[in-house]
Specification:
192 residues, alpha/beta, 7-stranded mixed β-sheet
């Protein structure tokens, strides 16, 4: 089985993507390859951050890998928090703080349209490939459900009446931004 590093230590992301790879690849975390430092995320785009993280792992550990960066883009807030989604409410990267700030900033706002966008950069034997996944939806007025992570408790995907937290992992993966980007990644890996 081919080994592939997912440049993250986020156990939720690892579990989500592992399920999607269906046992075709042995998915390694940063910890598995001995990478304990914080990966750089100094770019002003999701694509730039995913590229920077993947390049860091490839250059320092010589392991084929992929990295993602995801942003929530809210229409009424001119696309913010965007690339700063994880640290929207500050450097502590608290999901609860981020959601509370988002709901506060959307208080009394009728336009609650938003989208999640994920950019994945794959470095396979040093060759770069990019994939993108988008899911449109709306921001709920209050927290819903108790599963998921990030902004999942307040994001309702288009065509559904449940937030991501209220959906099963399989249902969410079938339509999520990360799921769509990973599906492209998996399709590419099957061909190569």
């Amino acid at each position: 089985m081919q080994q592939l590093c997912f440049a993250t230590n986020n156990k939720h992301k690892l579990a989500e993507v592992s399920r999607m790879l269906e046992g075709r690849y042995k998915l390694l975390s940063l910890q598995d390859i001995g990478c304990h430092e914080e990966l750089p995320e100094e770019q002003d785009t999701l694509e730039g951050n995913s590229r920077q993280k993947a390049a860091y792992v490839w250059h320092h550990y010589k392991v084929s890998c992929f990295a993602d960066d995801t942003g929530l883009e809210v229409e009424a807030l001119q696309g913010t928090p965007g690339v700063y989604s994880a640290r929207y409410a500050g450097p502590q990267r608290s999901d609860a703080d981020n959601i509370n700030l988002l709901l506060q900033n959307l208080h009394n706002q009728e336009n609650r349209k938003a989208r999640f966008r994920t950019s994945i950069t794959l470095l396979l034997d040093g060759q770069e490939h990019q994939f993108e996944g988008i899911v449109n939806g709306t921001i709920a007025t209050t927290w819903q459900g108790n599963l998921g992570f990030g902004y999942d408790p307040v994001f309702t995907p288009e065509g559904y009446n449940q937030t991501f937290t209220e959906m099963s992992a399989d249902a969410k993966n079938a339509i999520s931004h990360r799921g769509r980007a990973v599906q492209q990644l998996v399709a590419f890996l099957k061909e190569h």
